[in-house]
Amino acid sequence: MSPWILPVLIFATWSAACIASASQKAVDDAKQKVPEDQRGGVSILPTIPIVPLFFWGLAWAIDLVAAPWGTYCIGGFHSIILTVSISTILYDLWLLNGLDNNK
């Protein structure tokens, strides 16, 4: 397996988690009828630089003791989170589309 698959998966997962958080904030603001110019956002810090590096390091440390279980466990965990995040994004986009049609 390529050594770049796990870090790319981890980075993609936490990027999708940030986007899912932003989409949920957009849905909440739209439900509360907050004017578009007064809507807030979400910050990607410290999620993007710190959390992916932590999990990559954790997988590496587990692999030192029991290879390849660190890669498998952390990769599987992040695959599940990525699936949930993408599902959340798609659901929130569907909700936003419905809220926009009700204007």
Describe the structure in your own words:
The longest helix has 33 residues, at 69-101. The chain has a domain at 1-19 and 67-98. Helix 1 packs antiparallel against helix 2, helix 1 (5-31) packs parallel to helix 3 (69-101) and helix 2 (47-66) runs antiparallel to helix 3. The protein has helices at 5-31, 47-66, 69-101. The protein is mostly helical and 103 residues long. It contains three helices and no strands. The termini are far apart. The radius of gyration is 17 Å and the shape is elongated.
Radius of gyration, CA atoms, in whole angstroms: 17 Å
The largest β sheet comes out as: none
Helix percentage = over 70%
**Based on CA inertia axes, which overall geometry fits?**
elongated
Q: What is the terminal-to-terminal distance?
A: 50 Å
What is the number of helices?
3
Low-confidence stretches are none
- Residue-averaged pLDDT: 93
Estimated structural class: mainly alpha
Percent of sequence in beta strands: under 5%
Give me the count of strands: 0
Order of helices and strands: HHH
Name the descriptors.
0% strand, mainly alpha, elongated, 103 residues, 78% helix
